[in-house]
Write a sequence for this structure.
């Protein structure tokens, strides 16, 4: 066997194996998907909410967890078609092949530093492809709306819940 044939065969086999591993997606339960998506959103929350999250570590963690719970509730209120699109995006971001297509790198999002994530999101924001602009807008709006849906975060907006005077007209 010639060296060139061996190298070409090895490269083709490796590429086929890598593609097969990335395309294979076993059936997972929704609880497992929820855990994975929570991890993915926990990567994006500090990026989108930079300056809004508390500086104290415990309070910051509590705010992120509260926002993650609100995201789950927000997703449940989306129309089914939008839920399906969002789940497709999240599944792509969790797989190496999808990550390569969307960000140009196979490095998992958890392994990236904040500046790399900001650069990726900014490239989506100003991309010529409407799909990436929509992905950026959808993630940003979902995270921002979920964060500010929690009354404990209204203080950042200098918003106070209105109080109504109840009169006893007896």
């Amino acid at each position: 066997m010639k060296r060139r044939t061996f190298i070409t065969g090895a490269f083709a086999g490796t590429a086929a194996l890598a593609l097969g591993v990335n395309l294979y997606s076993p059936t997972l339960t929704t609880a497992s998907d929820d855990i994975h998506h929570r991890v993915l959103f926990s990567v994006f929350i500090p990026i989108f909410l930079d300056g809004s999250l508390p500086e104290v570590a415990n309070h910051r963690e509590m705010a992120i967890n509260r926002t993650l719970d609100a995201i789950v509730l927000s997703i449940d209120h989306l129309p089914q078609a939008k839920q399906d699109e969002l789940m497709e995006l999240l599944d792509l971001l969790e797989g190496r092949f999808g990550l390569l297509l969307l960000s140009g790198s196979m490095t998992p999002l958890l392994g990236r530093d904040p500046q790399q994530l900001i650069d990726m999101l900014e490239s989506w924001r100003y991309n010529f492809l409407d799909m990436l602009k929509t992905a950026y807008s959808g993630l940003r709006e979902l995270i921002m709306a979920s964060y500010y849906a929690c009354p404990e975060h209204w203080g950042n907006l200098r918003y106070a819940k209105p109080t109504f005077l109840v009169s006893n007209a007896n």
Summary: Confidence is low (pLDDT under 50) at residues 24-32. The radius of gyration is 21 Å.
